[in-house]
Design goal:
By secondary structure, the chain is mainly beta. The chain has helices spanning about 15-20, 245-255, 260-275, 285-300; strands spanning about 5, 25, 30, 45-50, 50-55, 60, 70-75, 80, 85-95, 100-110, 115-125, 130-140, 145-150, 165-170, 175-180, 190-200, 205-210, 210-220, 225-235, 280, 345.
Length: about 350
């Protein structure tokens, strides 16, 4: 119990705050809790330890990396978005025990088509270069044509500042990739993605938009018959390896399916919590608060890189520009210490 941070209503006035609360990470990359389909005024961010770039007049900052989240859904030519149509039911949960963020939405389009949508994402703790998102789409009342576009957005910004220059890209369904470089520090990054469909035989088509390579599919959603879209992404930078382009594509080609990747990810978090949990008796609110705080720290701890530290805002946003005043070695991570008994506190 007391492992789930949740919300049951979407409040646009708390958009940025909740993006921070629902941040996920694995010690290498952190991704804010922005929606896969986007929302006006949102601040999506994927931040990677050590990927800094210059800011005019000021100093360097963690560069917002290409966005791996986008999944755009059109229902009978109307785009799914929470500021249009009618939200009939909504729930978002961050399971800090398993490191999985999920969202369930029942949405009725302006034309009257009702869908159940479930989004689920994680940044693999078993393999820091892997992130994944799964979307399950189910028609509720009547059949409808659905188009799904999953891609990589190469135009991220830090509050209006653009840090990346496009180098190359490619789309060869069911995979796509983007190669880009920071404008001043000259660090290169490669993201490679694949798209898998379950529950429908619709083909995956390429969509080679400049700096936004994507894959798309169109199918008929039948009432009560879920169609699952699985998007798996690999990430490498020139800080990690001399040839990030080759590394990202080779790892993508060798990966297991989404279910196996999630199982390995959850097993890795289970091992971390064995050494890191703090038990508070008599106060469930405090128990959840402590576990959420621990999760955000553990999700930001660089386990395999002693050249970086945890910034004041961790990897959850642009505050303090990703700077820190000290260095936290990876040996400070609880998962790298000898096993010790859990801490226990009584209220």
């Amino acid at each position: 119990m007391n492992w789930i941070v949740s919300e049951t209503e979407f409040d646009p006035t708390k958009l940025h705050h909740k993006e921070t609360v629902f941040t996920i990470g694995n010690g290498y990359v952190g991704t804010r809790g922005a929606f896969e389909e986007g929302f006006p005024g949102a601040q999506p961010a994927t931040l990677i330890h050590g990927i800094f770039d210059d800011v005019p007049v000021v100093y360097t900052e963690l560069a917002n990396c290409p966005d791996w989240l986008p999944i755009y859904i059109r229902v009978e030519d109307e785009r799914f978005r929470l500021d249009q149509g009618t939200v009939l039911a909504y729930r978002r949960e961050l399971d800090v025990q398993r490191g999985v963020l999920s969202r369930d939405v029942r949405w009725r389009s302006p034309a009257g088509h009702t869908l159940d949508l479930r989004f689920e994402r994680f940044a693999s703790l078993a393999d820091e270069h892997v992130v994944a998102v799964r979307c399950t789409i189910t028609a509720v009342e009547k059949p409808c044509a659905v188009t799904v576009q999953a891609g990589i957005n190469g135009y991220p910004d830090n509050m209006g500042v653009l840090h990346w220059t496009w180098l190359d890209q490619g789309v060869d369904a069911p995979t796509a990739w983007l190669h880009t470089r920071t404008r001043h520090s000259g660090l290169t990054l490669e993201m490679a993605m694949r798209m898998a469909i379950k529950g429908d035989a619709a083909p995956v088509q390429p969509l080679d938009c400049h700096n936004c390579p994507a894959l798309t599919t169109t199918f008929t959603a039948e009432p009560g018959q879920p169609v699952v879209i699985e998007k798996t992404v690999t990430i490498f930078t020139s800080r990690d390896i001399d040839e990030p382009v080759q590394a990202a594509r080779e790892k993508l080609a060798a990966l297991d399916d989404y279910t196996a990747l999630r199982a390995a990810h959850e097993a890795a978090w289970a091992a971390v919590w064995e050494n890191s949990d703090v038990l508070i008796e008599g106060d469930p609110v405090a128990q959840l608060a402590v576990r959420h705080s621990l999760f955000q720290i553990l999700a930001a701890v660089p386990r395999h890189d002693d050249r970086v530290s945890i910034s004041a805002k961790t990897l959850s946003g642009f505050g303090y520009r990703g700077q820190s005043s000290g260095t936290l070695k990876s040996s400070c991570c609880p998962s790298s210490r000898p096993r010790s008994p859990r801490w226990r506190a009584t209220c």
